[in-house]
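Workshop exercise sheet. Pairs work together: one partner reads the sequence aloud, the other fills in the structure field after running the prediction. Swap roles for the next sheet.
Pair: D.N. / O.F.
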Amino acid sequence: MKKVLLVISGGLATLGVQQTAVAGPLAPVVHKGNSLRAQAWCLNQQAGALEHKVAIGKRYYGVNAVGMSLQARDLRRQAKMLAKKSNRVALAAFDSGYIRPGYSAIY
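Structure field:
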């Protein structure tokens, strides 16, 4: 599971590097936004895996793993915080004139 997450996050990082190369002077801002978004995605994946383990435990073994449920909830909360921060960074980049390549700007 960890190997899959590492491969996927590596792919997201590669995509982020390609977008950063196009960003020019706004590259640090775009890179920060991409990094925050990738971190939020990974945290959501980890929370989903924990929630799946809790569901399996309840269904087959009758075990209620409250600690794992709370940990998954905290991971989701952290992911939400990172996603909101990423959106603020993306808005700052857009306000500075950055437009993602391949997308038209609607004014």
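Discussion prompt: The CA atoms of residues 65 and 80 lie 23 Å apart. What would you look at next?
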